[in-house]
Design goal:
By secondary structure, the chain is mostly helical. The chain has helices spanning 13-19, 26-33, 37-50, 56-68, 72-80, 87-100, 102-114, 121-134, 137-150, 157-168, 172-181, 187-199, 203-212, 218-230, 234-248, 256-269, 272-285, 291-303, 307-316, 322-334, 338-350, 357-370, 373-385, 393-405, 409-417, 425-438, 441-454, 459-471, 475-487, 518-528, and strands spanning 496-501, 504-509. It has 30 helices and two strands.
Amino acid sequence: MAAPHTTPSPPNSELLLKRTPPRMPATVVLLQMCQNFQEVRQIHAQFIVSGLLSRPPNAGRLLNSYVSMSQIYYALMVFDRMPSPDEFANNAMIRGLMGYSPYDSLLLYNKLLLGGLTPDTYTYTFVLKACSRLEAIKEGKQLHCQVIKAGVAPDSHVHTSLINMYAKSGNLDSAEGVLAECSRENVLAINSMISGYMNQGHIEKSRAMFEKMGLRDAATWSGMITGYTNNGMHAEALALFREMTMSTGSVVPVNESALVSSLSAAASLGALDQGRGIHEYIFRVGAKISVTLGTALVDMYAKCGSIDCSYELFRKMQERDVVTWGVMMSGFAMHGEARKCFQLFDEMVAGGTRPNEVIFVAVLSACSHAGYVEFGHRYFNQMVHDFGIRPSVEHYGCMVDLLGRASRLAEAEELIRSMPEEPTPIIWGALLSACRIHKDLRRGRWAFRNLMQLEPLHGDRYKLAWQMFSNAGEKEEADNITRFIKENELETTRGSSFIEIDGVVHEFVVGNTDHHRAKEMYRMWEGIN
């Protein structure tokens, strides 16, 4: 028997409204699509005109967009005008302040607690990162207690941040204790521990933990490569990069940090072939060349002697920041092309990029290498008077070096005596080096006396003074220094050079014949003679 036909009743309008999500205003949708600061400002203006800013979620969304664009001043302006910021707004503001003023992040967290709001895992993660940047171990431990009381699961991002915080503060035992609470499959936590070991110089522990890992992600490899590079183990960093590219294939994408650290290692060794190999790899895998990665490539080619390739890449970059400009200027300064360095400086300023302290170090270094004393004075005064930058020790060191190379030691002495702060070993070392070249014993002795007070057991300073006295024919004083170096077993830096053959970097150190092909090289040398 067929069922009777019935006409369906109209749906309950109230029920339908409850089930249908409210339509999000177009302006709010556009805010989520903003790509730059100016677009966010335009949406901000529309929020004000339309009255959308007064609706609770929208102010928080706008605040978060400003934070994402690193516009903390505007984010604070929105936050301060919110009558009752919720957890989302507080988290966004804490995250924004974390990179600019970590201490203010902690103050805002305390205000959040006093206001009766409940922190979530995002809050704990951001505040722990602030503690990590401040190396505020006491506050970090207090936060750890709050995390335990809140019952946060051990395998969360919070515990990864706890490991980072403890390791950054040098408290590796506590970091290991947090790691022990996590599961063995928690790659994030293990990565944090590896980076913590590396940052504290425990290379062997990092490597042992790395070797024991069953699953390694891009951050694992990056942490090891970056750790090797930061610890001056550049050959090991490049070897691990090669292992990574062969081991992971297309399974694990290479992140930018690993590429930048590997390029930095190649630059430090002057390993042009290996640097080119990394560049080819970047092209092959289709990695996006960001400003940071592009700058690392420019720096690598410049430091490896290929200044033309460096400049070509620099010109091809669609976007550059002040660091990119500084790297290119430093490259030209290093290669003795001061005029190109000056041209870049003028182009950068004309394009609206404001120079910072590092830019002027590069420009003054170019003046020093080229012997352009008047240009050096001009840029030094421009830095102070036009851009309001207070000269640092590096700037004074460049000026002393510039004047010293030009044999204008009286002016160098006058500049040192006019410094608002006490001269550092960098300043005295630059003066002593100039006095050695120009055999100015009076000022040389003055510089050496100050160096002995600041660095009484620095072997290289005594070696420089020995050279000055020897060149000036002061045998007795030179012999006294030699005796002092031997009696105190002071170490001095020996000259070294690098050569890259078939992608392998070979280092040669003065007085060292330990190279595995030394005999072969000496036989060849004898044959040439």
